Amino acid sequence: MKLRSGSRRAKQRSDTAAKAQFNNKPKREPKKATTGVFEGIDFDSLEELAFLQWAKELKVAGFIKHIERAQSFLLCDAMTIGYAEQLKTKSKPMQQMILHGHSYTPEFRIYWTEKGFEAFVNDHTLSERATKPFLGVKFDQTHGPVYQTYIEIKPMFDQNNMERLFKVNQKWMWQKHRIYVNLIKCPELFAKTFTPTEYLTTPSGKKRMIKWKIRNLYTYLRG
User: Fold this and answer.
1) What is the pTM of this model?
2) DSSP H helical segments within the chain, as ranges?
3) DSSP string, 177-204
4) Whether pLDDT at 184 is above 90
5) How far apart are alpha carbons 70 and 141 in whole angstroms?
6) Are strands 73-76 and 134-141 parallel, antiparallel or unpaired?
7) Is the pLDDT score of 5 beyond 50?
8) How far apart are CA 5 and CA 55, in angstroms?
9) Which residues sit opposite 108 in a β-bridge?
10) How far apart are CA 216 and CA 36, in angstroms?
11) C-alpha pair distances (Å), 178 with each of 26, 125, 130, 141
């Protein structure tokens, strides 16, 4: 059947035109890296990076002596059953795993200077109301006192409900090792204390939108 005079012919798309259309589409920006190394310390999330930026300012100002990734702690031993497997001429001792052991690793361990401990940490061994951002403990050792706290970092919005699991580990850390692990959410910490300068811009260099009143370390210490 012929097309009538004046009728529009159906547009045909060539492979070349399709490629040009694809190439003209706006390209998505690559996802920002959420892991890396900051001041020689590994971080596994942008929340951890923000906390390390906060801790760096305290270290430069002489409030923190050292910060590092925390070690693992065993909270529950494994459960096994021992039995003998009878072979043709002898028996062989065997073990069956019933429950695996359970370990927990906090994010960071902070070693404070004496003035840093007094300014930011309540010693949980003393009879005083906890009003400072952290709970920690002073250990008297041969070469002098050691002031330290353990830190767990969580985002404000916990979509995987990992905070609930942490709170169980937190209780068992206290029961088994007498170590209190501080749960830190950076926006809450920054609003309560100070906002680190490096946090004011995003990793891509843009000015960060901040919903709380911004104070620097000097302003916070003045009260």
Assistant:
1) 0.77
2) 15-23, 46-60, 114-120, 162-177, 186-192, 217-222
3) H--PEEEE-HHHHHHHS---GGGGB-TT
4) yes
5) 20
6) unpaired
7) no
8) 78
9) 69, 151
10) 25
11) 55, 11, 17, 17
